[in-house]
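Minutes, structural biology subgroup

Action item carried over from last meeting: produce the structure token record for Family 16 glycosyl hydrolase (Pseudomassariella vexata). EB confirmed the sequence was re-checked against the source entry. Recorded below for completeness.
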Amino acid sequence: MGLPKVISLLALFSSAIRAAVPSIEGFTITWSDDFTGAAGSLPDSANWLVDTGTSYPGGASNWGTGEIQTFTSNPENIQQDGNGVLKITAIKDEAGGWTSARIETQRTDFLAQPGSKMRIQASLNLPQVEQPIGYWPAFWTLGAPFRGNYLNWPSIGEFDIMENVNGIDEVFGTLHCGSNPGGPCNETTGISGKQKGCPGSICQGNFHTYTFEVDRTQTSAEFLRWYVDDVQFFELAASDVEAEAWNQTVHEPHFLLMNLAIGGSFPNKEFGADATPLEDTTSGGVYQAEYVASCCVARGKARETV
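Output recorded by EB:
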């Protein structure tokens, strides 16, 4: 194989990796990461913060959800694979403790302006393990005022774009808002919809596209929508939620998060037990991302959105 052919193949290979973020019809991508860093490296620090420990400084213990893992920045728990995929791995040590990883965007200004429509989207592959009880991969957002405060949830709002627990072949989309307990979003549960299975193949072990949309293009109505592989499975209208809570959540900027938790309130509830994981829950499950992107479309005159 001659040198020109080698260079050509390398160029094609590099192009294939960097083509992970697709064009989204009708939208302009305004921010993205396709995880093309070197094998073993952390995600780009210009885009992401890596959370560590079992809580934010001064925040609720166990990240406020009862999950039992410790988040680290260890490459065993989080790394880019050199082929355009970010891998988050949950590991159980010999003493029975779990480690995993959680990242959040540096940017805190993801917002659909009045008259615009915003989408947040990722291509994700959920962990596929022999005994998955206690696994809790998620892709979600928090309202920007949470950063540095850590005690003002759920009033700042939360959009759960994709949550999956216990390896069940279904995914949840949820809105959190208002006050806790109870309030306009029925906290701590939130207002949820779910998709049973993913189009074409099971959710675990396969890449699927998970999308969240904020639609503010109409002056008379606003909507939140959740999709898997462009198939809508849940919608909420502004009329479904108390106006003040909707405004605090939908009309304010957010930041994005992705993590693989172990145990906690959601997998416990779905499993019907006081505590997960189980003693035989499989170590080494991997949560993967090919890309994360945000895009927008504006009605009429273009507006600055992310």
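Discussion: The longest strand covers residues 286-298.
Next step: EB to file the record with the rest of the batch.
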